[in-house]
């Protein structure tokens, strides 16, 4: 058994102090890793099913090879790693607001070690996803003109439960529509939510994307074996009239 509790890093940021900690969890018989923003629990490596499903479900809705993926929100890296496991993916750009989180991956402090940092297909972009989505230069000034086959977002708890009020406008039709110029024909936008599906948000997504749906992700809580339901929302833009993606 390792130390009962260890704070691996603690950094003030523009949206509050963020910390990475590792603690022994006797109910599971192993160390677990947790990220907190102030007193708010952001994520744990115990619950990664839906983060992985975000990449799997979104990419299953995309055809072709040489896929370019953008992930909004780095976290512990499970969504980006899941995307990289798809053999059709040629590159993954990860946009993360908080430099300390990117640094944790560079230093290998998380359960995934420095796997993302070492992968030649990965680019880290330090910035505000929501601001970049609506900017003229896009997410990557030297890359964005090429567009992405999938944009995967996992930052807020849900479209209604936000980490920071600055993202509120993004979940309205005008904000969602800002993604369209960044997606290639046939591309998808995938959104993770900690809540069960919302018909209201699905309808909002359909007002922007010609095809949109909500996919429930259901799994067991390892602590008490209760059922947890989260959601992956997907919106897809059409292919070109001649059926080709590019």
Task: Write a compact overview of the structure shown.
This protein has 246 residues and is of the alpha/beta class.
Low-confidence stretches: 242-246
CATH architecture: 3-Layer(aba) Sandwich
Cα Rg? 18 Å
Number of strands: 11
Distance between the termini: 53 Å
Structure annotation, total helices: 7
Mean pLDDT: 94
Neighbour order of strands in the largest sheet: 7-6-5-8-9-11-10
Secondary-structure element order, N to C: EEEEHEHEHHEHEHEHEE
Structural class: alpha/beta
Range of helix content: 10-25%
Q: How can the largest sheet be summarized? A: 7 strands, mixed
Show the helix and strand layout.
Elements: E1 5-11, E2 18-25, E3 30-37, E4 40-44, H1 49-60, E5 67-72, H2 78-84, E6 89-96, H3 99-107, H4 115-118, E7 122-126, H5 129-133, E8 148-153, H6 173-177, E9 183-193, H7 199-206, E10 211-220, E11 227-236
Parallel strand pairs: 5-6, 5-8, 6-7, 8-9
Antiparallel strand pairs: 1-2, 2-3, 3-4, 9-11, 10-11
Helix pairs in contact: 1-2
Task: Please tell me about this protein's structure.
This protein has 246 residues and is α/β, with parallel strands linked by helices. The protein has a single domain (47-236), classed as Rossmann fold (3-Layer(aba) Sandwich), CATH 3.40.50.150. 20% of the residues lie in helices and 34% in strands. The chain is built from seven helices and eleven strands. The protein has helices at 49-60, 78-84, 99-107, 115-118, 129-133, 173-177, 199-206, and strands spanning 5-11, 18-25, 30-37, 40-44, 67-72, 89-96, 122-126, 148-153, 183-193, 211-220, 227-236. The strands form two sheets. The chain has a seven-stranded mixed β-sheet, sandwiched between helices. The chain has a four-stranded antiparallel β-sheet with strand order 1-2-3-4, with no helix packed on it. The termini are far apart.
